[in-house]
Amino acid sequence: MTIDISASINACAAYYGEDGPAMRDYLLAGEARAQAMTNRGPIRFDEDGRLHPDILAAYSEVGFYVFEGAVEAAELADLRADIDDLRNRFPAGSNSQVTTDGRPAMNANNKAPTLLWSKPLSDPFGGTAIAAGLHLVKLYEPQAASDAPVESPFILLGPLQFSPACLRLYAHPKLARVAATINGDDYAPFHETLFIKDPGLGAAVSWHQDGNTHWDSPEFDEGIHGFNFMTQLFHSTAVNGVWALPGSHKVGKLDIAELVESAGSERLPEAVPMLAGPGDVIISNRQLLHGSFANTGLEPRLSINTGFHRRSSVLDVKGAGIHSEAVVYDKNHIEQRSQIMGIAVNARREKFPEEETFTSSAVDPSLPQHQWSPEAMNAIQDYNLLDLSI
Questions:
Q1: Do the Cβ atoms of 183 and 308 come closer than 8 Å?
Q2: How far apart, in whole angstroms, are the C-alpha atoms of residue 221 and residue 219?
Q3: SS3 for 385?
């Protein structure tokens, strides 16, 4: 599948009125900078099965790395089909419990937060107290087309409980090996989301750094708040994708408002887009300054985000953010949240019986509570109430 990025950039610029030429130049310049970088390629391991040192060095320097072709074509097709089916089971609107054709919606019985909606092309988080006030500035909100809906799906929290394909992806053995290399063999989960950025509708996510807990810790380092895998089902471009400020994960908490003021606009001059194709997986440090503009382009972006922590970052630590209550994450809490990792391993084994198995050393997939069956999708309902948010 090929795309015409020039057409998409021109479509985007048209939404910015008199500022359109400046936005067009910014997108083109950022794309050129990103293409010149060397933080991309297939997943490679050393002779001990650890992520290759060259990749680790590039990831540490930049703060993100694009694993090209990490998800093979058959699994990619499976994910797309499963999410198409899932979207057909979305509620008719943010206040509805039924689908557009009157069936019970996929999240009708959930207690945990699930599907978040937004006004098309808005920045719903920017300048608000949402997500512990991480999004300090509001990005430009283009005017959507006159026939655009009043609201559109934006973020699905806890997608593993709704999509067997996403659950299987969660146990991808190569990605699990990457997680073990970076966060230790006993790595712990964080949370999972599905980002929906439909063309002409997808909302912006204001510049922010993830993480609330450890900025002032005496043990602070570049990896203390964990990372996210972002699996791309379609192209991630300069228009619809996430932008990031390379190296910003190492320097601590940034004054984002000052950065925007110094730049003279929301277009931070040194930022680059995370360019990726279908089946590519981006690993992104959570401390990296990042954000995304409203999707005024021509291509959709669907990203399945799965996050992981060092166990030491969450054990006996008080939670923060929106993903679980502000409780202290004791050993029992972490073990309960980790159960889904074992279930995912067994679900993947059924689909890919010839594939190797790999997961956190703290998880034993042979335990009864980790066994897989279609009924397990009901058993993991609201699992994201236990998310390990720091």
A1: yes
A2: 6
A3: helix
> Which value, in Å, is the radius of gyration of the alpha carbons in the chain?
20
The mean per-residue pLDDT over the stretch 178-205 comes to: 97
Distance of CA 375 to the CA centre of its chain: 27
CA distance 113 to 384: 8
b vs e for 22-31, b when ≥16 Cβ sit within 10 Å of the residue's Cβ?
ebbebbeebb
pLDDT at 1: 58
Which has the closest alpha carbon to 120: 96, 146, 101, 89? 146
Contact 345, 370 (CB under 8 A): yes
CB–CB of 56/62 below 8 Å? Answer: no
Q: How far apart are CA 304 and CA 162, in angstroms?
A: 13
Residue 69 to residue 179: CA distance in whole angstroms: 17
DSSP annotation string for 331-349: HHHHHHHHHHHHHHHHHHH
Question: How many CB atoms are closer than 10 A to CB 294?
Answer: 26
Burial class for 4, CB neighbours closer than 10 Å (0-12, 13-18, 19+): exposed
**What ranges in the chain are assigned the alpha helix state H?**
5-14, 20-36, 53-62, 73-88, 130-133, 164-169, 173-183, 256-263, 311-314, 331-351, 376-379
Strands 281-285 and 290-292: unpaired
- SS3 assignment, position 153: strand
- pLDDT band of 135, cuts 50, 70, 90: confident
**Residue 142 per-residue DSSP state:** P
Total residues belonging to the chain: 390
- Asked if the model's pLDDT at residue 176 lies above 90, the reply is yes
* Three-state secondary structure call for residue 178: helix
Q: Could you tell me the domains of the chain?
A: 5-385 (2.60.120.620)
